[in-house]
Amino acid sequence: MKQLFFFILWSTSHLAAQDSLIVVEKSGLDICSKGTWNLIWSDEFEGHALDRTKWFSYFPFTKDGSDSCAACRGLVGDEFLSDSNLIVQNGVLSIEARKEKASWFGKDFDYTSGNIFSMQGFKYGRFEIRCKLPEGKGFWPSFWTAGDGVIEEIDVFEAKGHIQTQLQTNYHHCYNRSGCQQPKWHWTSDQEDWNTYAIEWDPFFIRWYVNKRLVRTLPGYKNLKNNRPANHCILRKGNYVPIDAFPKNKHRIISGLGVGGPFGGRISSKTKFPSRMEIDYIRIYQRTDSE
Question: How far apart are CA 202 and CA 123, in angstroms?
């Protein structure tokens, strides 16, 4: 979406915007888009192997985009990211966690699993996944987005394998400092069943959904006078500016099954291997402008 450079007469509002400043001279401006969602990118995981025109199976941190670095296949948890753990069958991608040893660039692992990282970046839209999550202490399934070349991370969900009725949403705009993230926990249905998780992201809001149920909203603008976030669609009279920490760049999409690590926690002796995170599809939609 382009930056806001327009002058509009509304039936109830008079709006002028320049350099992303929104001036509302009369209360009542609706900033929520009503356009139709159009599918612009998807993977339905048909065929017999991961589509390498859409995905990396590792984190492409090297200059040439290869996996020739320790963190490229050993970033998330205590697992090595192996291509053989990405299994495509019957329209489903299964990411399988196994208890087996592996080594990569001088680092040793006791577990293997898998991860997918999109080759293409996207700015704004609805990012949606339909999946099943495994049960077991230490599992760390997730679906998230990461800014290209900047620290902007939207966690559509992260889950702990031993907590089947809760998940976490989050947004990071920095790391290793206070105030870098905004995690929230949400009650959900059983995650071993098929569930749909999504965000809708535009210049004004990020909204998180679980099975079409809105569970969280993060505003992207604030009132310049009192610094209060614009939490609702309808703006009152005043001047509004973007919140600095709100994401503004293209994002890649990522999903994987972590094992252990800072979020998954210590593996239990009762955790079953192999176990799978199953993905039915990943889809990205963008809106048409409302008439």
Answer: 8
